[in-house]
Amino acid sequence: MKKFKLPKLKINRSNSNNIFSYLISVLISSLILAIVLISLPLTERVTSLATYDLVNKNSLYWSKEYILELNTQDDTNSKQSIEKSRSILQKRLRSLGVEQSSVIEQVEDEKDILRVTVQTSQSKELVDSIIKSPFIVNIVTRKDDVNYEDQENPLTPYLAENYNTTEFTRRNFRNIYITKLKNSGNEYSYFALYKIWPWEKEWENFLNGNVGQSVGVNIDGFVTPVQVTADKGLFAVPISATEKELAQVTSILYNSGVMPLSYSVTSEEEIMVDTPEIDYIKLTEGILVAILFIYIYLLLIEKTPKDILIRSGISSVITVAVWIAYLKISDTPVDIFLLALEVITTVAVIRIITENVESRMIVTVLIALISSLCILLGSGYVKLFANDLLLLMIISNLSLSLTTFYILNIRKSLKL
Amino acid sequence: MNLIQTVLKDWSIYERNMEIFLILGVLFLSLICIYLSTKSKKILILSSISLSLILLFNFLGILVINWIFKIDISEIFKIVPVLSIILNVSNLGILVGFFVSKRDAKGFKISEIRKEYFSDSIKQSIFLALLGISTLLFLSPKTEAIISISLLSNILTIWLTYWFSKYILK
Asked: Would you call A296 an interface residue with chain B, using a CB distance cutoff of 8 Å?
């Protein structure tokens, strides 16, 4: 019987490089395909093991109108105070991340009112806390003739009428910092640390004069008793918030300016939500068809070299697909109309930075700087858009580098 | 006038100030960045004109949308100037990038970059127009309005900037 010999497989450096390039190409192709499939609408129906449907923010939106009656009787400069109250309310709502809000001044039955309208996906409880409390802070001291230990009146230590007011208000403090500290029960809970201005000596004198005694912080008529300790300058007020979000709301209320007027909520009414309705399935399909259509057209008119068109086309698809896949997998609620704007901007920028290599750095830096500034100074949708765009700029630059490597690798492995 | 009156009456001073700070901040930041990259006053002037034009066209676009198409101008429209400036800055980036890469070349004249800018502007205009038209079918009227104002303002600004470059980049 003739002996069968297996052919010897010669692996030299050039062969192994080709195999490696080939494997890398296969790996990247599979990865791109998987991401594109995840990003396409309704692919979540393929398997029940993982749910990665895009979470549309539209269902989370609610809208409400609050009527606030302002107490302007004791104010001599009410017009200025009303304007300041409007600005502080707006600042508070924006700091919380409310997408749309308006604070309009009106006069009804000779009473000054503020009509506050919000439309947001934020929690109702948090928005209510922001709007309903003017958060006017005043430090108070105990009255000599009041029995704070009275068992029959347990509310005595908490009512503002049982205290003497002092000259100290929120204005005397530089900042109020909310943090977790150990309480008397040796457990961590939230406290508000009152930080003073360096030149504020009166506050130091006040604390020194009340060491070991109980004073109070009156916020909108409700007093939180505080024991003054011998720790120099430390004034920590326990706050009722137990959750991080509520502690954040307290921080916003403390640090968004001093409300000049007190007010009360006279009515609140749910109103219709007004957001641009877009079918995300149609949109995703539309965007992909649009990208394809534009690139085919550009290929036909031969204004741009084929190589650049292929690179920017693949980069655009990868960027959009990675972004949508990320939003799906991370379960991030999305404003579909914002997604459309982000995708259009990104696709336009990718084409520019692919074709004009010398402009890639300046365009990326400029957009990153503009986005950062919008995150810092913007609010609502502008902030959300800028935040997403900054991430998209990073993804698009990475996908552009990946595409360049991928195309080179394919050419190498297929010896084109 | 109704729109301007609404802004003056319904926006709080805080809102107006923040909006002005944001727009001016974005403009100054872009111009500083462009000047630091190019060290050219001519490009800085051209960029300033371009950014001013985009804001002017945005304003006119919002007025037209409100008056003629009776679309209610809500907070969503605050995205328009940001989106437009980003697209405009990417167009100016082409000019800046090309200038920076060529300025040290022998016999370089600033007028040469107009030729390159022209060809890039054609491509960008075609691309933006196609992108806008092809996505309009899938969007809501408000989103369509935002995209239309931003893209049309951009295309107009690109060509007016090119026209101004004839006199500035000499």
From this structure: no
Domains of chain A listed by start with CATH number = 17-56+276-414 (no CATH), 61-270 (3.30.1360.200)
Q: State whether B130 and A278 contact (CB < 8 Å).
A: no
Distance from CA of A66 to the nearest CA of B (A): 15
ipTM: 0.92
Q: HSE on the CB side for B113, CA within 13 Å?
A: 27
Task: Kindly report the nearest CA distance between residue A156 and chain B, in angstroms.
Answer: 39
Neighbouring residues of A96: CB distance < 8 A, sequence distance ≥ 6: A122, A126, A127, A130, A248, A249, A252
Question: CB distance B126–A303 less than 8 Å?
Answer: yes
Q: Which long-range contacts (CB under 8 A, 24 or more apart) does A72-80 make?
A: A72/A112, A72/A261, A75/A260, A75/A261, A78/A112, A78/A261
Predicted TM-score (pTM) of the model is 0.86
Mean pLDDT of A359-385: 92
A 2-61 residues inside an 8 A Cβ radius of B = none
CA distance A159 to A138: 13
- Taking the C-alpha atoms of residue B170 and residue A336, their distance in angstroms, rounded to an integer, is 46
pLDDT at position B152 over 90? yes
Per the document, the length of chain B is: 170
What is the rounded average pLDDT for all residues in chain B?
87
pLDDT score of A10 more than 70:
no
Q: Torsions phi, psi of A159, nearest 5? A: -100, 135
User: What is the predicted pLDDT for the residue at A411?
Assistant: 82
Give the residue among B2, B11, B58, B80 at the shortest CA–CA distance from A94: B11
Distance separating alpha carbons of residues A153 and A33, to the nearest angstrom: 71
3-state secondary structure A144-168: CCCCCCCCCCCCHHHEHHHEEEEEE
Grouping H, G, I as helix, E, B as strand and the rest as coil, residue A261 is coil
Phi, psi of A138 (to 5 degrees): -145, 135
B157, B49 in Cβ contact below 8 A?
no
Helical residues (DSSP H) of chain B, grouped into ranges: 2-10, 13-38, 41-67, 79-102, 112-136, 141-168
- Rounded Cα–Cα distance for residues A132 and A118 (Å): 13
Hey, which residues does A106 pair with through a beta bridge?
Answer: A113
Collapsing DSSP to helix, strand or coil, A229 comes out as: coil
Instruction: Give the model's pLDDT for residue A5.
Output: 67
What is the bridge-based pairing of β-strands A188-196 and A236-238? Answer: antiparallel
pLDDT tier at A329 (50, 70, 90 boundaries)?
confident
Tally of CB atoms within 10 A around B68: 8
Q: Is B93 within 8 Å of A366 when comparing Cβ atoms? A: yes
Residues 63-122 of A with CB under 8 A from B: 83, 86-91, 94, 99-104
What pLDDT score does A117 carry?
Answer: 93
pLDDT digits (tens, 9 = 90+) for A165-219: 999 999 888 999 999 988 878 889 999 999 888 887 888 888 888 888 889 999 9
